[in-house]
Design goal:
The protein has a single domain, classed as P-loop containing nucleotide triphosphate hydrolases (Rossmann fold, 3-Layer(aba) Sandwich). α5 links the parallel β5 and β6. The chain contains nine helices and seven strands. The radius of gyration is 16 Å and the shape is globular. It has a seven-stranded parallel sheet, sandwiched between helices. The chain binds adenosine-5'-diphosphate and magnesium ion. Adenosine-5'-diphosphate (ADP) binds next to α1, β6 and α7. Magnesium ion binds next to α1.
Length: 210
């Protein structure tokens, strides 16, 4: 059977695309899954994390990795889906055309979104794109503060828009930033921490969807 493809997409830069992808990839690999990560973002943040992982991280599961231009993604995916169980694709903050190919090939599109008006406005473009390509999509709340009016308003706005939302959320935690800097995920750097629990909950939820 060929691998499932999960594309992480969101028009807004800094929403948490690369963070989300890295955390999911490492948590899945820790469960023994064969995972590939693909960077089509010219900013190459995922590529930078992968370099650190390859050079400094010791005794961690191997991740297959490819950095390709968006136009070459199809060819790369054709190859990777035969070699692994799951492929995660990291995308640039998109003008529609750039992310289209990655969304089109996805079995599931994840849309990381911080509880802020700017992230919410930008999410619409990604959900519209996923709908146009008839791909299922889930919003994943990122950097959620413990409580507050802004969070409640953001949740209400998403409910009004009718976008499907993952129940598991990633809170605003230094653990995500610190693990990234070491080429690790939180399940590797702090396996007993609250962040690792959040990521594992999200993995369980996504496994049921895929
Ligand atoms: N859940 C989180 N908690 C704390 N910081 C986060 C979280 N998610 C993302 N960040 C930080 O936000 C910034 C942007 O995240 P990044 O994943 O690079 O976004 P994108 O790939 O969408 O541009 C980074 O500095 C990252 O460390
Ligand atoms: Mg990124």
């Amino acid at each position: 059977m060929s691998a499932r493809v999960v594309t992480v997409a969101q028009q807004k830069g800094g929403a948490g695309k690369t963070t989300l992808l890295v955390q999911l990839a490492t948590a899945l690999a820790a469960e023994g899954r064969k995972v590939a990560v693909v960077d089509i973002d010219p900013q190459a943040t995922l590529t930078g994390w992968m370099r650190i992982r390859e050079h400094e991280a010791r005794s961690v599961p191997e991740l297959r990795f490819a950095m390709v231009g968006g136009w070459r993604l199809g060819v790369e995916l054709d190859r990777l889906v035969r070699e692994v169980e799951l492929v995660l694709v990291d995308t640039p903050p998109h003008a529609e055309s750039e992310a289209k190919g990655a969304v089109r090939r996805a079995d599931l599109v994840l849309v990381p979104c911080q509880p802020s008006p700017a992230d919410l406005w930008a999410s619409r473009a990604t959900f519209d794109l996923a709908a146009k390509e008839a791909r299922p999509a889930r919003l994943v709340w990122m950097r959620v503060p413990p409580r507050g009016r802004a969070v409640e308003e953001a949740r209400a706005a998403v409910a009004r828009a009718g976008w499907p939302v993952a129940a598991a959320e990633l809170a605003n935690r230094q653990a995500y930033v610190a693990s990234f800097a070491k080429g690790l995920g939180v399940v590797e750097a702090e396996p007993k921490g609250a962040a690792a629990q959040e990521v594992r909950a999200l993995v369980r939820e996504l496994a049921a969807l895929l």
